[in-house]
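Incident log, structure service

09:12 report received: a user says their structure output differs between two submissions of the same chain.
09:20 pulled the input from the user's history:
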Amino acid sequence: MTPPLEPKTGRSARAPLDEVDRRLVELLSSDARRSVSEMAEVVGVSRANAYQRIARMRAEGVITGFTVRTDPHRLGLDVAALIVVNSDQRSWRELRTELRELPGAEYVALTAGGFDFVVLVRVPDVETLRDVVLERLQGMEGVRSTQTMFILDEVGRVSR
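09:34 re-ran on a clean worker, output below:
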């Protein structure tokens, strides 16, 4: 008899976040350049308390980094597409790594359901997208099929 599989999430147990922690994360998400003093005042705690909470959340992996949001069009990335990929089931780990290196790949997700992966690609033009899909993606070992959906309009990320 085969022993049952243990969960392999790769994630450690989560520490509970209270309302102050959540509000600090929300403030950082909207503007990571905001000062700790300003955030402390907004959430009603001392600067030292806010700093300690942010440091704890970084150490626990709740906050994984700080970044900048850009306008893809102003960067010359005028074509966006979602590409769904069906793969050979035995090669999903290797394929996931390759998809992350795909030119223009902004987001890669392993999924359940009708497709194995979803990839968000941003490129300058349709010709570049053609090359990414037909030459690079279709040339990857383990790719069985793809479907490309052009993104016509975006409302951006919804903050919570």
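09:41 both user submissions now match this output. Likely a transient worker issue. Closing.
09:42 reviewer note: The beta strands are 79-87, 105-110, 117-123, 143-150. The longest strand covers residues 79-87.
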